[in-house]
Records
---
Amino acid sequence: MHKPKFQKRSLFMLAYVVFALLPIYWMINMSFKTNNEIVAGFSLLPNHFTWDNYKTILSDVAWYSGYINSLIYVGINTVISLCVALPAAYAFSRYSFLGDKHVFFWLLTNRMTPPAVFLLPFFQLYTSVGLMDTHIAVALAHLLFNVPLAVWILEGFMSGIPREIDETAYIDGYTFPRFFIRIFIPLIKAGVGVAAFFCFMFSWVELLLARTLTSVNAKPIAATMTRTVSAAGMDWATLAAAGVLTIVPGAIVIWFVRNYIAKGFAMGRV
Amino acid sequence: MNASNKPVNQKAWFLILPVLVCVAFSAILPLMTVVNYSVQDIISPERRVFVGTEWFAAIMRDEELHGALWRQLKFSFAVLALEIPLGILLALSMPAQGWKSSLALVVVSLSLLIPWNVVGTIWQIFGRTDIGLMGAALQGMGIEYSYTGNALHAWLTVLLMDVWHWTPLVALLGYAGLRSIPDAYYQAASIDGASKFDVFRYVQLPKMRGVLMIAVLLRFMDSFMIYTEPFVLTGGGPGNSTTFLSQFLTQKAVGQFDLGPAAAFSLIYFLIILLMCFILYNWMQRVGTQTKEVGHA
């Protein structure tokens, strides 16, 4: 009775993996073709295998600086998000204070603002403080949706740690900052990993804000790609190669946090 | 957050202060600006007329907007109805340990890590009947598939793209929730002679409640604000069959430069999302506790 059920599930898993990978396979396939071959017709494998598209991207500053810019602001954003979210999540998970529930829900509402109309005020705000076209500007703007999520996830992990641990540490003479950094953060390492993954992901894929707040110096890769789309004659091959390369950093990050997701959430919000 | 027996400590405000400063900087000033726009007629940056609630009244009667809102609601409902069960099923099917589980996690998460406009581009090509795998396959099966010409096909393609893109989020969260269930629960269930379905209904589902709540709320909010992917894939067409709320809003704000009405509309938009999330949040919390009671009985 146990066996067949398991097999049915493996079959479903396999079907999903195929579904998940097919569009990506198609992009990878295209990234190894020439533009002529792509437009000429349908083929499952590239007939004239070429690395040229990747070479174009890796040798042209206009292309590869996009990846560097994106990585810089995503990195800044992830670090700031975690640094401010950790103490806040601790406060929410350990204490009750005036208006705590309201503040918690208010934080979440910041994920719900429709971006379109908020773009102009954002543009004006960052122009007036002189941060336009800097990595910091995008990193700060992305805090809007990443900080609430990080607080939410970390609060869940922290609530899973018994309060007795805090109390014992204080009795042993630990001050709060020392206890927090030496004892508490190592305990919720997994939660930090998961939160970092989500911050990385949402900041990496966001386009509208990043594009509005940058022009040249901090232009993200996603925005560089839209310019190719609007150019006369679609450069599908380069576009596909650029697309493949946007997956790589994320895939590396998920590889590092995979064990945290598998085991770590054990203590999380459940 | 359940505030059952936490000590009261007003100094905790100092711990959340950095978060408040960070978020308030990017949240309150832009929001105030939008509120400011919403009550003015902006003819040019120098010439503005205060119009009070006129825009709000006009928006409420806008037929086109009702159409976009209705399409949006149908789309978000379809997204939740497909992605949540599929995500749970996927979470249940993913291998629990070993290299297979690592591999499954990486493969499943891939689609989440692709920038949204790239997602649109991938599907744009993938669905083309001349050079795309899916388009060509459907054509081969004798279906007159065209996401640029047929409204239903366009809608279904956007939906399929969203399922492909976001089901992994539900699956990852659900998977993490499942891994947190101690073996003792399964042993107890098997002693009681519980069937597979009973285990799912009374052990796994209640234990996944917390993470599923995050998943449902995130999927609702994000699908309700979907913009980039359909914009790249179909541009809102054919006709207005895939013009969802945020695209309608952008057409107003950027295309026609009607900042006043667009601002008023985005405030209403925001309130709709807020209200729906509030309802979902409370409903899921009630459902959860009832499940627990049944489980104990």
Note: Chain A touches chain B through 107 residues (CB under 8 Å).
---
Amino acid sequence: MLVRLRPVAFILVLLVIWQIAISSHPGQLLPGPWQTLRGIGDLLQHGLLLKYVVASLFRVTWGFLLAAAIAIPLGLTIGWYSRAEMAFNPLVQIFRPISPLAWIPIAILWFGVGDLSAIFLIFVGCFFSLLLTAMSAVHNIPDVYINVGRNFGLSTPAFIYRVLYPAVAPQLIVGLRITLGIAWLVVVAAEMIAVNSGLGFLIVDARNAGNRYDLVVAGMVVIGLIGLLLDLAMRSLEQVKSFRWGFPEN
Amino acid sequence: MNSLAKAATWEKFFWPLLTAALLLAVWHYSVIWTATKVFPSPLSVEKGLVELAHKHVLWADIIDSLRRVATGFGLAAIIGIPFGLALGWYPALNQIFNPVLQILRPISPIAWIPVAIIFFGIGDKPATFLVFLGAFFPIVVACASGVSNVPSIYRRAGRNFGLSSPQILARVVFPAALPQILIGLRIALGIAWLVVVAGEMIAVDSGLGYLVIDSRNSGKRYDLVVAAMLIIGVIGLALDVIFRQVEKIRSVRWGFRS
Amino acid sequence: MDHVRKIFERDGNSISVLEDISLDVRNGEFICLVGPSGCGKSTLLNVMGGFLSPTSGSVAIDGETVQGPDPRRILVFQERGVFPWLTVEGNIGFGLSKLSDAERKQRIAHYVQLVRLQGFEHSYPSDLSGGMKQRLQVARALAVNPDILYLDEPFGALDSVTRFIMRGELLRIWQTERRTIIFVTHDIDEAVQLADRVVVLSSRPAKIQDVLTIDIEHPRNLSSPRYLELRDQLAQKIGLAFSA
């Protein structure tokens, strides 16, 4: 029982240190834990928190799903046909290290300042990650499964549905979880630059319009918590029985 | 993977070149066809690249970005690797620190900018701090899981031969975990590169990220924007390739089955 | 098989794995391919099954040249052959999608019984032991009524007790539902216990060293003089094969 409390105790210790550090420097701009908590309350009261969280989640959902719908089938195909991989891999490798945020000027040019821009940026961030995940998942299918599929004379659509997809599913789910994390990082950053709502915007706005650092840190804490929740939600998906087979094998 | 005949060596160059050529053609003709006044055509991007190369600013920007990556990543590695190893080795430590890490990790490094500016002012330091944050978490996670994934057989063998705990960690566990740690470092380096560019778009006034944003803001020079993006991509790729070469050094290679 | 040769190219070097293999197999026969590790037995099996094409020569079944894998000739792999995302029933029913629901259920039930996996119909392979997984693979293979069954060291990953039991099971199944079986192994006892004819392959590049006919009736007494005699003969021939 005591062991379980260790992380909690540690967090409490950190909070205390934080509070002390702040209190011992009066006139300090940064808030202490208590102020941050009040900041969160403040945001909740004004309905801003909910509004911004919804805005951020909305963009993440759209960007993420669009990227998944396109990148996964594309990635599976490219991974499967060696010539396709030869054709596209160099291009992918060059585009991948370009931060999604570097696309902001283009995003604004094409979509203006607003939701679409943010969704586009999230799409870019998720697209390459999912593409590579799908490609690698196909590579990692043990040859045995493919040979069995061929042996039983499956037609190509049947093969894709009954062998390929189940075989790659566990790896895809892990990739989806990691990519969702990326999406969450991108949306916050994108909102700090290119949009006028959302949690990222909250941080920038709170600072610009009045140095409300209590709201800044409050925003950061909320971002961290929601990101964590998203991750946990995806992990529980990994536990679904028909996907679980993939994990003991690893 | 496909059951079709094995591809010839020349095809390794043919297909990507063909695809690139097609892409450039599509790009070129879309620009003409939509008669856009702002979006650059491949030719203007090429000219932009040349223009940038001649301007001293480009090289200074590249060096700035690389410097921040080097510092931030280096710090993250120096602090993160021992920390991660400890977390993997002592489950009690992991239990204590993990929840905090899990909460801090999903906070985009960019979101730390206001806080970073308070601590470090404007300039190099906040950007380096952001890079540090971006690289720190993946490194810690990779080290921790690298250590905990070392088969207990190895640890037991170490103890069998009379090694003390720190010796086992250094002489058995660390080499065993090294392949995974290197992969984590490589990924963290990639993230560092992404973060530095993003950070430079907000918090600093030099570097490749700044070049991207500045080219747009001062004159809508989209040709330079795209040129800068390509440079960012190529350098990022180069970093990745170089690191992969490090992974290939033979004494480390045992962990990778071809 | 007619003068089958197989040459692999790797890193610019040609490695000749199979050299001039010619063999006739009768319907319903149980043939064992025996040879030292790495000699190319699995390659030969894959060529027979149509998963690899010969560099020269051909494989014909009932007069028809083999072009590729076919459900009439199912290969049972040494390990990881069953699909981990399907239950026992799902695996056995894998090749039966063209049947009606009722027929499929019936066939699945029949083969579950045959390989003695009753009670595990809804279990996943991760809940099964190694021997059970191999039995599942055999059931899946038999369910589609193939003409030929290829087995690539199917018991190689199992412990010796299980292997012994599995041999008995395989013979029992074979005698109930007779097919042509081609069985690859490096275990001499296994070959003599199971096969009608044993084909001895030399080390790489593999040629047919010898063909031994096992003329003992099933069930074979493993202590009978004839059994031991044949076993020693085979051991001798393999001894030659090792030094070839």
Note: Chain C has a mean pLDDT of 85.
---
Amino acid sequence: MQMPADLAPVWTSLRTAVTATVITLVLGVAAARWRLRGHARTWELLDALLLLPLVLPPTVVGFFLLLLLGKHGPLGQLLMKLGVVVVFSWPATVIAASVVAFPLMYVTARGALEQLDPQLLQAARTLGASEWRVFWRVAVPLAWPGIVAGVILSFARALGEFGATLMLAGNIPGKTETLPVAIFFAIESGQTRQAALWVAIVMVISFAVLAALAVWTRRQRQIMALSQGRGAAPGGKF
Amino acid sequence: MELRVEIEKRLPEFTLELAFEAGAEPLGILGASGSGKTLTLRSIAGLESPTRGKIILNGRVLFDSSAGVNLPSRARRVGLVFQNYALFPHLTVAENIAFGIAHLPKTEQREIIDVQLKRAHIEGLQSRYLRELSGGQQQRVALARALATSPQVLLLDEPFSALDTHLRSQVEREFRETLASFTGVILFVSHNLEEVYRICNNLLVLSGGTMAAFGRKEEVFQRPPNMAAAQVTGCKNFSRARAVGQHCIEASDWGVKLQVEQDIPEPVRHVGIRAHYIRFADAPAGLSTAPESNRFPCWLAAVSESPFRTTLYLKLNAPPANPADYHLQAEATKDVGSALKGQSFPANVQLDPAQLFLLSD
């Protein structure tokens, strides 16, 4: 019996989920912006590709990641020449978590940006703002509620990632062993109490995430209700 | 100060084609919804690209299809006030006004904000958010935000349409003061005749994407060059017409011969008169009728009353068969209208030769 409890998977998981969330935030918002500036028809195929990790079984995602980043994969070989081996390293857990969490971030960010009143962006342009400024000073602040929802969902998805992580990063304690993977192997080897502890920790984190989402949504609704009260229909046009 | 626009914008179900110039005096763009008013402003602001043509502001080429020039909005130095204001809801009033002058030093920004707040009479509101402002206040902030960047042209897209009626006249009066001190070109888009007439000296009438009229407002209202311009400027009474003498025409839809003051154009197809120029010969004192020409017996077909005016639907020379059987719409003040309603018909109506206008289309 290992006591005090082995908390290494907790830290690995949190580190992985936080890093993956930051990566998906940057990439997801960037992809959403890129997508919305392009022309819809040519983008449908790429859209499908960006959303694929959401619908594929994680093991299938893991399979493709191995093909790409493995010893014989094109990217894997390139990295090997630079002295980097991704497979079975901590970065592999981040890559797996990022890939499966990315579509959630992308979809919510795109939805939030799409719903912006285009006149607000146009007003910013006529006021002399560069596209960069329009994006950071107008689009992102106004789409922020949606983006934060995407961050919370991505974090939850990254934290729960199992299949792709196991295939690409394996199960190296203290290095690539995340909570979901650790729970699986603890159960498999009969360490029920250890597994139960980890499950409890996952439950706490998950509830905290859900609570954060609920609080956030309620606050945003209140703000929206306030701004729609007068802002959306100036002077009581309706 | 000069804006020259000569553009064509082809859309699947609509083509906008127009050429005009605007100088120091405000130019009103009048047209029904869907006539291309807003599209014109958006093209000048760089939010739409015309299919071909040129837009030149004070000698600067903003757009030239043949030279491949299409300046982005941010480089055009235009101030656009959107119909619904498009204020930034996440910024305060002061931050909204400062949005377009962020490149200036802080102290200079502060000065410009103060000037604008003072001019718009919203000094106390600078740290408020959009949701804490009334419609009239939002409108003032929108204009202040556009003016803060000292644009060379101010584009106003129905700036009063979202305001309650009781606010409109006050806001409009302040607006006129502000516009009087603005030194750039002003284009004012509206579908409200009276508003445009009060604010602008020159008038461009748009109808279905083409220019129906362009000139001094008095000229356009007095002698609309075509049917579309006459209709957009509010004329309700038209009849087919043909010349029967040097200053005499036959108005076949009304079944009368009319003396006209203007020279008869060739060809002449229609004659028109505005509803408020129709005079009643035996109307009560105050509505005098001098000349004898163009006087006809008329019967009342229907009446429509608004709070302060009465519209009378009249049939000439014969009693109407039903309320929809009428030749002319006449507009009268409430008291004149009710006096007429009570009197016996036929009454005498007079179509002033000086107010009849002839159209070639």
Note: Residues 202 and 232 of chain B are 15 Å apart (CA to CA).
---
Amino acid sequence: MNNNHHFSSYEQLSNTWDEMYSNNAEIRTPYETIIQYLKNTSKETLIKKEELSKQLFMSQGVTFTVYSDNEGIEKIFPFDIVPRIITAIEWDIIERGIKQRIKALNLFIKDIYNEQFIINDGIVPADLIYNCPNYLREMKGIKVPHDIYVHIAGVDLIRNNDGEFYVLEDNLRTPSGVSYMLENREISKRLYPGILPRNNVRSVANYPNLLYKKLQELSYHKNPNMVLLTPGIYNSAYYEHTTLARLMGIELVEGSDLVVKNHFVYMKTTNGLKQVDIIYRRVDDDFLDPLEFNATSVLGVAGIMAAYRKGNVNIINAPGTGVADDKATYVYVPDMIKYYLNEEPILKNIKTYQLSRPDELEHVIENIKTMVIKKTDGSGGYGMLMGHEASDEEIKDYLDTVRKNPSAFIAQTILKLSTAPCYINGELSPRCIDLRPFALSGKDGIDICPGALTRVALKKGSLVVNSSQGGGSKDTWVIQ
Amino acid sequence: MAAVKTLGLFNNFETIKRMLSRVANNLIWLERYMERGNGIISLLKVNFYANQDSPELFSWTPIIQNYNASSEKIHTEDAIECIEYMVFNTSNPNSILNLVTKARENARSVQEHISREMWLCINNYYLYLIRKDLIRKLKEEDPIVFLDELKKYHLMYNGTMDLTQERGSSYYFMNVGKFLERVIQISDFTAMKLIEIAKTSDSLEQSFYWKNLLLSVGGYQLYLKTHKSSFQENHIIRMIFQDKLFPRSMYYCVNKLSRHINKLIEINELEKNNTEFLLGKLESTIKYTTIDGINEQGLNHFISDIKEDIKNISLSINTVYFSHSN
């Protein structure tokens, strides 16, 4: 049986890299096995598989809740059944590139909160740091274990039409999505029995063990008491928090389970207080300690920062890492790599314009239709202006806002995100994708799990892959 | 260096896992909700049969009144409507849907403490309950098949817990919840029938109620085996309250409750405080009050004493996790 019609309406986007088809519409070698499998499978079977994947997500409880009108609706993060494939050669570049980047960024954060050589040497302007809302004065001069600030990073990459990977964002605070890397793989095993081994797909199952080991090594205790701090069941990533806690074998705690006494952090157990050594927090800096940051926060623990400063507890990632993944700081990462490591960046940055510079602002306005403007402290795909699809009025309004505080915005040329085949309405169609691998830093260096979260913009022609805006995900196969 | 070594050594002694107070609380309530759901389904099933036979004796109102804590009053004697109310209505705090939703929320937040299989079991039960076509199944098909389907999830849940949950603090806390709830249920079911029994002097009618009580707690078959088909109040009370081997008797459940509480005290998860004392008091009340003694004070009085004791035990366990919460 041959079901070539799955492919009949596959229209490649112009001037865009397609992960499956080469420029002359031939199937790239790594995709051959899976494509052959799809061709030999009927539409009915594929639709059943799609249905099965949804059921599996639901029955495992891999859901997030959307609240409206006081009612919570549980949803699954849309999953596309066709895997995204990355070759060993591509992975090698990605891996080396991210390691290099995280190494430099970590040195940068240490430098910024201590001697500030990079400012004194005129590489990074002081304004940039002090204007950054994610810079934490409270972190100045704190000695963190093994000088590691970014223990967990989820760097977002995209592949441009030149076939190269570019860094979109560094995500050094509390990056999420790793549970989908794990869960998507589990679903693939069920959907395509036998296909994974035939493709020599590298396993991602080790991630929780690796994370545990990296965090454990930070402590002087042999068996440190490690907890995962969640904002609670109303957080959209709660599923991920429960999963990671379960797979690492550590306690999932909420702010109200912890208490600080004499600068030590304790959890409230049935048998009294028990000291906590390491907190893998999934609560943002701002909510971490009502005594030092947002005073109305009930998600954090009062006094935790004082305990941290005394070295009595380790917080993962360190507070204040947001100073390095801010969109305005992003521009300087290639310079940081040269400055701290004396190396050429392996992964490229996207050409970025700083709107506080009049000449660059002018250039952006002239070429607005090919530009995307973002807030430097924005995330989740919100508050952006996509020049090619905005109306003249929207552009005008947005630029008015920009002119009021130009340093709060950056602009980038709209990149051509690569496309990958997605199974949509019974046939394969190209959709834009990105890539988020997860890097773990410990005292013995940086390790990257050979897999990633591939996010998909499921809307036709859309470049926005964020889950909050119609994005979905794919399993990501790194092959040997 | 010496200091580090000492810390390492200290840590090795610290292998006893301490449980978060919130977790212990959620485990107890997870089981209480599940057990309550299980009991209510049995009650609905038994009442459905009885109501078909003699609607004047087995009205739905007492059941709804006992479980509906909301201000909304419901007046219907239509069996299907009543079952629908008790299973699906979201303003009824004890509807099966609400109980399972709450059980699932508790389970979700303690996933690293319960077996994976238990979580999947509860989650699938919940997903079954929110299926859009389920109400239609109740309305258009056999209500007993409908209730049996729900019951199966409870049986599967209990079996899964038995086979997959390691014995340890989580298991003990869950069982504390389970047997607390079961004791409350036996008291409630009996009290509900006593109200009806008091309304009539017809001994045949009274025997119907007693038989119905046996069915509701699941002791009918055992009763027949032991006492044949002759329904005597004293035998029934003795079986429901004092039988050592019947798993839904008061005696059996209090014994189990005591066993799990003592396990928790043994591994230092629960402070002795006065839980042990209260439990001992309850145990001796149940074990050593003769049937004549019960009759003398009245079954109603006996039950309300038990309920009072259970309330105090429950409060005393509560103090364990509330005492650390500030």
Note: The mean pLDDT of chain A is 92.
